Amino acid sequence: MKYIVYELWDPGLEQPFYVGWSYTANKGKARPYEHINEALRDRQGGNQLKLNVIKKVLNEGYEIDIKIVFESDEMDESLLVEQQLMAVKGLLDE
């Protein structure tokens, strides 16, 4: 099974604002796009800061850049990379 770690980037600021992980047997590489759909549906609950950043970026006429930054067959390894990225870059997580 393949696991991915991804970042959501604000192209106006040219920096990531969120990091997440998923496994390809479930939602796979589609998971990052679900965050955008949640913001467009004006979903309540969850990580409102992340959703507000997505809405702000879209309202400014930009698109969210999605970058797959790590792939592995090991879930623990992927979770560790996700946590390290959040700590080093100060990124958001749900």
Beta-strand fraction estimate: 25-35%
Biggest sheet statistics: 3 strands, antiparallel
Order of helices and strands: EEHHEH
Number of E strands: 3
Radius of gyration over alpha carbons?
Answer: 13 Å
Helix proportion range: 25-40%
How many domain modules?
1
Shape: globular
- Figure out the total of helices: 3
How does this model look, in words?
The chain is an alpha+beta fold and 94 residues long. It has one domain (3-89). It is built from 3 helices and 3 strands, in the order E-E-H-H-E-H. The protein has helices spanning 31-40, 48-59, 75-89; strands at 3-10, 15-23, 65-72. Strands 2-1-3 form a 3-stranded antiparallel sheet, sandwiched between helices. It is globular.
Defining traits:
94 residues; three-stranded antiparallel beta sheet
